[in-house]
Amino acid sequence: MTRRDILTAVPTSFLADGRLDLEGSRAIFRYVAESGNEGAFVLGTTGEFPAVDDAEFAELVEAALADLAHAMRVVVHVGATSAFEAVRRVQIARRLGAREFAAVTPYYLPSSEAGLFAYFAAISEAVGDGQLYVYAYPARTGNPVSPELLARLAELPNVVGIKASELSLEQIAAYRAAVPADFVIYTGADRDLVAAGEVGAQGVVSGVSSVLPKPFRALAAAADSGDADAIARAQAAVDDVVSVIGGDMPRMKAAYRAMGVADGRCRMALDEPDAAALAEIDRVIATHR
């Protein structure tokens, strides 16, 4: 059977004045733990990692492991602008018990492929006997991971996979051709669980599934069944939810408020949904929860 992991990219909850809402974040973790998904991806883009300091990072990792690890894998994102900062976060998370990690490429300043390899090699050494996923998001970081570089990174002993965000199916296929068969490729495109699987991905890291996991579970089950009509219906449901919530953290948090999960806001400079968007969020919750 084709592997179709769904890893939930989990938002971080903040109070209206910007302070960390640890209890709200834990409420989201507990909600995600009941999703039936295979894993949680914490403190990534959806978790607003650039706006979280080391002390908050430690609090959130400790809470995530306490509230999620009994139900699913927990992948802790540690990527930063430098290897020094990323290694420090690996060390914090390892002390707390984390064993699966992901690291986005360095960002803001351009890096050569040699510089990117050195960055991931340093993080790999810090991860030790854990597992590390490369996180390629060139639309946000400005630093792409070529298939040739990925093939080199796959030779590091604990680099086991990649999360590829805002990359085309053709680019995912190129990654698949460059790495061993057991190297894991996750797409960051919420709606592409099936489509990316057809070109060699083993699953999706989805922020939207943190809010409404049911359509994603149904799509995975339909794909496993091979029933074309069931796949089409399930894909339409996923597309509906993604079109309304997408990779928009304020909309995710508005949905949590509507469902009574957590009353959090974003810390980063993101626009809150307007009345029309809130009405659509209410609609998809009523339809797909």
UniProtKB/TrEMBL annotation:
Pyruvate binds at T46, V205. One of its GO terms (molecular function) is 4-hydroxy-tetrahydrodipicolinate synthase activity. The keyword Lyase applies. Coiled coil: none annotated. SUPFAM superfamilies: Aldolase. Pfam families: DHDPS. SMART domains: DHDPS. The keyword Transmembrane helix does not apply. It comes from the Bacteria. The active site is at Y135 (proton donor/acceptor), K163 (schiff-base intermediate with substrate). Keywords: Lyase. Belongs to the DapA family. This is 4-hydroxy-tetrahydrodipicolinate synthase. It comes from Microbacterium barkeri.
